[in-house]
Design brief:
Arylsulfatase, C-terminal domain; TIM Barrel; about 35% helix; single chain; 8-stranded mixed beta sheet; binds iron/sulfur cluster; about 375 residues
Length: about 375
């Protein structure tokens, strides 16, 4: 076993590895983000769930992990003050202060994050696109203006409701309080809930201006889910206004371009609005994400779904900055999804320049 302590002190995080058995990553405020003890690798969510193997631990297990982590911190500090081998990239004194700060975050104090989380988010954060998992989530509205898709486990039946300007201003302050100094580590912003772009153009401009005032510009810009069928029609100039305020990426739920199946799922059977909206948003420099459901043999003609969807995506002028998300239908009982995924990826890559990635919707955790 190596008896070395490795540490990296970066601008927005620090991480340590010790004796091949311990690993720890801390945020700017000293709260732990991930912790490895031998084979076990834990992660902590923004609302202070302790997650192991994609399962949230119960409270007594979390308390135990936290106690173990506190002992590991003490060992690391002891090693830093002693003789053993150490390889430190960055300022050693800053590292020691960082670990001391981490020691002050015991379980009770970390549990206060749950209160901050609930104050900040009146609606839970049920999912984010996989390329935006580390975004700072901002919530200008709750619910979904469609809310009737039969496969949707997240927003079905939940009414779309914009936050009032006062509620939104307060929300931004609460988000700031929740993330603390670590807010700077979030290099993108995501507008939750199901379809923030259902807000009017005036409301959207105001939301984006307030976000910029509160959090500045982020390297990866702002992204949002978007349902063109349940949002104001925007011309190219209006998309440009949003892009000028950092809107960079919108994610649209196509699910299928086979219209009888799309209608059955609870979405519009007309694809013209979607196609026109994609063209206009792209002309304004906004990147597009398109979600496609796979594994629906139980409810539709899978071959027709495959062919229509592939052909529709092939017609869209997508580029390498755009993304197709393949999402296994959560109600599917079929096996062989991995083979289907591979088939879809190959077929879509032959008709589009967009990236094609997997998007699993189950057991999403919004990690610290
Ligand atoms: S539009 Fe999207 S969020 Fe709304 S119900 Fe349908 S799948 Fe769910």
């Amino acid at each position: 076993m190596s008896q070395t302590l490795y540490a990296t002190v970066a601008e927005t995080y620090c991480k340590l590895e010790m004796d091949d058995e311990l690993g720890l990553s801390l945020d700017l405020d000293g709260r732990w983000r991930s912790y490895r003890q031998g084979e076990r690798f834990y992660r902590r969510t923004i609302k202070n769930q302790y997650v192991l193997d994609n399962n949230a631990l119960d409270e007594s297990q979390a308390v135990e992990v936290q106690a173990e982590l506190q002992r590991s911190l003490a060992r690391m500090l002891g090693r830093l003050g002693g003789e053993g081998q150490q390889q430190i990239s960055g300022d050693r004194t800053a590292l020691i202060r960082w670990l001391e700060k981490a020691q002050a975050w015991d379980y009770t104090r970390l549990q206060d994050q749950v209160v901050y989380y609930r104050r900040a988010y009146i609606e839970d954060i049920p999912v984010l696109p996989p390329d935006r998992y580390h975004d700072l989530v901002v919530l200008p509205a709750t619910g979904c203006p469609n809310a009737r898709c039969r496969f949707c486990t997240l927003y079905q039946g939940s009414r779309f409701e914009p936050l009032t300007p006062d509620q939104f201003a307060e929300h931004l302050q609460c988000v700031r309080a929740l993330y603390g100094q670590s807010v700077v580590a979030r290099d993108g912003i995501f507008l939750s809930s199901a379809n923030a772009l259902a807000l009017s153009q005036k409301q959207m401009l105001s939301v984006l201006e307030k976000i910029k005032l509160c959090f500045g510009s982020r390297k990866r810009g702002i992204a949002s889910f978007y349902d063109p069928e349940h949002a104001p029609k925007r011309n190219e100039n209006q998309w440009r206004q949003l892009a000028a305020l950092d809107l960079r990426h919108v994610v649209i739920g196509l699910e299928t371009a086979y219209t009888p199946l799309r209608e059955y799922l609870g979405k519009s059977g007309h694809l013209q609005t979607m196609q026109a909206s994609v063209d206009l948003a792209k002309a304004a420099g906004i990147n597009i994400g398109i979600t496609v459901l796979i594994g629906m043999e139980d409810v539709g003609d899978e071959e027709a779904h495959f062919e229509h969807t592939r052909d529709f995506i092939g017609q869209l002028a997508l580029q390498s900055r755009d993304i197709i998300y393949l999402s296994p239908w959560t109600l599917s009982k079929k096996t062989g999804l991995q083979a289907q995924l591979a088939g879809w990826k190959t077929a879509l890559r032959s008709v589009t320049a967009a990236k094609v990635v997997e998007y699993g919707l189950e057991r999403f955790f919004y990690f610290a």
